[in-house]
Amino acid sequence: QVQLVESGGGLVQPGESLRLSCEAPGLSLDHYAIGWFRQAPGKERERVACASNNAGSTSYADSVKGRFTLTKDKAKYTVYLQMNNLKPEDTGVYYCATDYPIIKVSDACWEGMDHWGEGTLVTVSS
Predict the structure, then answer these.
(1) Phi, psi angle pair for 90, to nearest 5°
(2) Cα torsion at 67, 63, 39, 104 (round to 10°)?
(3) How far apart are CA 83 and CA 67, in angstroms?
(4) Which residues, in sequence order, are bridge partners of residue 94?
(5) Following CA atoms 111, 116, 118, 123 in sequence, which dihedral angle do they give, to the nearest 10 degrees?
(6) For 58-110, how does the pLDDT look when each residue is reduced to its tens digit (9 = 90+)?
(7) Rounded distance between C-alpha atoms, residue 74 and residue 87, angstroms
(8) CB 73 within 8 A of CB 1
(9) How far, in Å, CA of 65 to CA of 8, rounded?
(10) Are 109 and 56 in contact (CB under 8 A)?
(11) Using CA atoms, how far apart are residues 44 and 54, in angstroms rounded to an integer?
(12) In what order do the strands lie in the sheet with 68-73?
């Protein structure tokens, strides 16, 4: 069983930054994709950023390109989402997810996310 724990959310003003963490103890980030999703009030859950296993690359939603950066610390089994220049429309609950136990050869990063954390709330005041 896979456990994912998000942290780092909070209340910030527009233009400020946050760094979210997703701890995935024991999960090999060389083998499995891990990504960030978010859900704003009244909206569908949307893709934010996804880090493939070593067979792929990192992808970002158009809405966050140039502002958000996903990084991995494989030794700590942790992924981060650095969120810069936050906007009110970035508000939502942020979730991390992984496609474990799928081993992907192609770069289909977003698909097959079967394990999810409980989420961390990011609120960007207007």
Answers:
(1) -80, -5
(2) -90
(3) 6
(4) 38, 120
(5) -20
(6) 999 999 999 999 999 999 999 999 999 999 999 999 999 999 998 888 778 89
(7) 29
(8) no
(9) 20
(10) yes
(11) 29
(12) 5-7, 18-23, 78-83, 68-73
